Structures are given as C-alpha cells and as structure tokens.
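$ fold --in a.seq
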Amino acid sequence: MAKTHKPHDQLFKQVFGDKEVARDFLRNFLPAPLRQNLQLDRLRLANQSFVDPTLSDFYADLVYEC
C-alpha cells in the first residue's frame, strides 16, 4: 500500500484495504437491489488505480472486483 500523508486516506485504506471489512461493509450498507447483483464471496482487491497520475498527490483509490 502506498504511503500517503493524508490521515483520512491512510485510515480509509487501512480499514477498507481489509477484504473482510470491505465485504462486511457492503453487506450491511448497500441497498438489497444493489447487493443482489454482487458476488461478495468473490470480492477481491484489484491491483489497479483509476486516478490520473497528475492528481495522485490529491486522490487515491481502492478498487474491488467481484
């Protein structure tokens, strides 16, 4: 995980970088119509980013696939 100087980004990445935490969050907080279209048992952290390199000092992302 890349080091960031933004404390909120660090917290978010630390918490939601854990697949089980992310899965539990999605199960508990996504509306049922959205949840039924996901295979949360197949959730995995994707090794990619959609943040433009020129914005990487300002934004970071975690991408999951399922």
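$ fold --in b.seq
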Amino acid sequence: MRFKTVKQVLARQSGQMGRLLEKVDELNALDRLVKSCLDPFLIPHCQVANLRSGCLVMMAESAAWATRLRYTFPDLLSRLRYEARLFNVTSLQCVIQKNPPIHSQVAHATLSLSAENAALFAAMAQEEPDPLLAAAFKKLSLRGME
C-alpha cells in the first residue's frame, strides 16, 4: 500500500486549500527562475514573496540585503523578460523579512532512541515490503541499540 503525502491529499481538494497549494507551487517555480537570474551572492538572502498585477515582490533578509537587491533591479528586470521570458513582470518591489531565520552555529545534541522504540523500528523493517523504507527503519532501529 502506497501512502500519499499531505501535499498530494490536499492538492486533490478543490477549494481554498487546493488553490493555496497551486499558488505555493507557482511561487516556488518562480523563485527558482528568479534565482537563476540573480547574482550568486544574493541567492541565499532573498526570495520571491508574491507576483501581483505584474509586480514581482521580492523579500530580503535585512535592509542591507534589500539595498543590494534593489541595485540589481534594472538588470534583473531585463533578464527576467528576455532570458526567462517573463514578459508579464512589469515592475519589481522589495520588502524586508520581518523575522529573518536565525542561522545557529551551535551544535545540536544527538537525540536518543529508547530500546522499546528501536525494537518497534526493527519489527517495522522486517514487515515492510519496500526495500528502501525497510532499510531506513533498520537504520533507525540501530540508533537505539547503541
């Protein structure tokens, strides 16, 4: 029996959730396309936020990155039109991310697995017909045996 992801289940629903997932997929595809036209040093610090009425809204991590991004707007707009064939983009806007992600340099502690849960994973590995999933369960079960 094949399990479906939450995204697959929600995508089949017609209605607001289905439309929301379609919009997310469109924005993710647009983000990849825009990042292919951006300078490499900007890629990790900005992303596409929205596309509305021909205005592509970009989000930057901070005011400093927003300024750098704005300097590239004329070149980016022409590259989007001619290289990426996004003729519907007529203007660009930049907003600053309110709560930027915190990139922690602290090493995270390894989580432990109880012997009981390790045994459950081992049993699941033996009963699973999919060899890749069975191998993953087996690998997880070994963490509790250490």
